[in-house]
């Protein structure tokens, strides 16, 4: 499977086995927080900003 | 069984829950709250036997839960439970109504009222936002100068929700608190949350370390009583050890448990999914 491209640095982002759409990962090259929007084909976008009402 | 799984992002907990649901043979529909456009004037189709509400956002969680409940789908946690647990004022009042021991708490609505409440409680005092999590914007206020500064910041910079002051006595806990997990009436397990060095907060989001906490009769009783008070569901009840015994200070409705499976040896995601199956439409 091809790698995803980091929208921040254009680096290559490999998805791990068992990756889930909606999961948050870090770009191995620039460290940006990314959201997996598609597993196949692999696609990521900047992770959503944590809002004030987020939590448990 | 058809399970609707509402989420904002797939956190480590959500990933474990999805795995547990699929392992149990459930047909899982992932429902991203970011993509929702819910027609609240039409009766929703009954597509699911149950919905597990795991949104990260309190507001999205409340309204999307109400939407599914309107369709007659059981949602865990329910709107009633979430609306209480996500609001510290309402939680505290409900705990009091049910005789669950909790720290002394005052609320106020103005700068003047907040200062009066603080002086009644004495220093140090803890100020918490009414809505909020992960110890965000919590303050331990040690003296009058600090109190005035924090209140001025809230008055100048905060939105309306920050102008409700929730003020609580400071409990000198033994460097840790207890978090107990419940499913309905059952207390599944508990952990100690050991504060990081030099840290008064015991949130794992603030570096606290989890270790197993045996569920004594006293702890089990107080936790079950707190869970009953808010209406039962899948809950994480936070408890402090104090000179006057155990005090419940928070009940969380979208529990995080990633650090609690290993120390307790309890398969929390499996137990959660088992509970959801139990409340599903038959």
Descriptive tags:
A: 56 residues; mainly beta; Rubrerythrin, domain 2; two-stranded antiparallel ribbon; 5 strands; B: 282 residues; D-amino Acid Aminotransferase, Chain A, domain 1; 3 domains; five-stranded antiparallel β-sheet; four-stranded parallel β-sheet; globular
Question: Can you lay out the helices and strands and say which pair or pack?
Answer:
The complex is a heterodimer of chains A (56) and B (282).
Chain A: E1 4-5, E2 12-13, E3 24-26, E4 33-38, E5 43-46
Antiparallel strand pairs in A: 1-2, 3-4, 4-5
Chain B: E1 2-7, H1 12-23, E2 27-32, E3 50-54, H2 58-70, E4 75-76, H3 79-85, H4 88-97, E5 105-108, H5 111-121, E6 125-128, E7 139-141, H6 144-157, E8 165-169, E9 176-183, E10 186-194, E11 209-212, H7 217-230, E12 234-242, E13 245-252, H8 261-264, H9 268-279
Parallel strand pairs in B: 1-2, 1-3, 3-4
Antiparallel strand pairs in B: 5-8, 6-7, 6-8, 9-10, 9-12, 10-11, 12-13
Report on this structure:
The complex is a heterodimer of chains A (56) and B (282). The mean pLDDT of chain A is 95. Chain A is built from no helices and 5 strands. Chain A is mainly beta and 56 residues long. In chain A, a hairpin with a 6-residue loop joins strand 1 and strand 2. The radius of gyration of chain A is 11 Å and the shape is globular. Chain A has a single domain, classed as Rubrerythrin, domain 2 (Single Sheet). By secondary structure, chain B is α+β, with helices and mostly antiparallel strands. Chain B contains 9 helices and 13 strands. The longest helix of chain B has 14 residues. The radius of gyration of chain B is 19 Å and the shape is globular. The mean pLDDT of chain B is 95. Classes of the chains: A mainly beta (56), B alpha+beta (282). Chains A and B meet through loops of A and helix 1 of B.
